[in-house]
Design the sequence.
């Protein structure tokens, strides 16, 4: 898989964390290093670690679905993308949480990284090495989260649902590129 596709996947996966980070920024009355770095690091680490777990899980059944790996990868990426789009429409905008608590940040980091587990399975069935993509996903998510917190703090009226829709569409697009390799000739 090309570095461009991996970067697009990393951007798509980071959109959930980006949207949540905007919420963190909106909720923060005052930003400090802890409120910027801790959530960004947690989101990045979990988002990068989950594909590794998924990749190793995918090894256990890869030989059975190897012939269908582009279809499996497409189905997983398409399903994740659609799920992100649907969840963006069902988000409770008025939900108020105490985002300063470490346990809440940990739960948010896990919740926003579940999709990355399925992407790891996709990498496994496509026989794509996992450590470089996981590092790219970690760094991308950290940066998007860090920027999201700052943006949320400065711009409290950002539409988080548009961000998640964009992430979902990116994952669907990558799924189509895997299913139909000739698409790469157009982009």
Sequence:
């Amino acid at each position: 898989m090309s570095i461009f596709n991996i970067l697009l996947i990393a951007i798509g996966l980071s959109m959930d964390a980006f949207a949540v980070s905007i919420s963190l920024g909106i909720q923060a009355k005052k930003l400090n290093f802890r409120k910027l770095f801790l959530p960004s690091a947690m989101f990045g680490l979990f988002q990068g670690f989950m594909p590794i777990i998924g990749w190793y899980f995918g090894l256990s059944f890869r030989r059975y679905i190897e012939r269908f790996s582009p279809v499996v990868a497409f189905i997983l990426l398409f399903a994740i993308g659609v799920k992100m789009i649907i969840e963006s429409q069902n988000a409770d905008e008025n939900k108020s949480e105490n985002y300063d608590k470490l346990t809440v940040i940990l739960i948010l980091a896990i919740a926003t990284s579940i999709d990355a587990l399925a992407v790891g399975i996709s990498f496994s069935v496509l026989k794509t090495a996992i450590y470089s993509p996981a590092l790219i996903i970690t760094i991308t998510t950290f940066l998007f989260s860090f920027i999201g917190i700052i943006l949320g703090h400065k711009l409290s009226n950002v539409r988080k649902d548009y961000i998640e829709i964009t992430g979902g569409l990116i994952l669907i697009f990558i799924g189509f590129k895997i299913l139909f390799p000739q698409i790469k000739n157009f982009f």
